[in-house]
Amino acid sequence: MTCSIAQAALQLAKFMLRGAAQASSALDFAVPAMEFDLSSLVVFGASGVVGEFLLPQLAARGERVFAISRDDRANPAGAENIEWSRGDLFGEVPELPPAGTVLSLGPLDAFAAWFAREAPASVRRVVALSSMSAESKRDSVDAAERDLSERLRTGEALLMQAARKRCVDCTILRPTP
Question: Can you give the pLDDT at residue 16?
Answer without folding.
Answer: 54
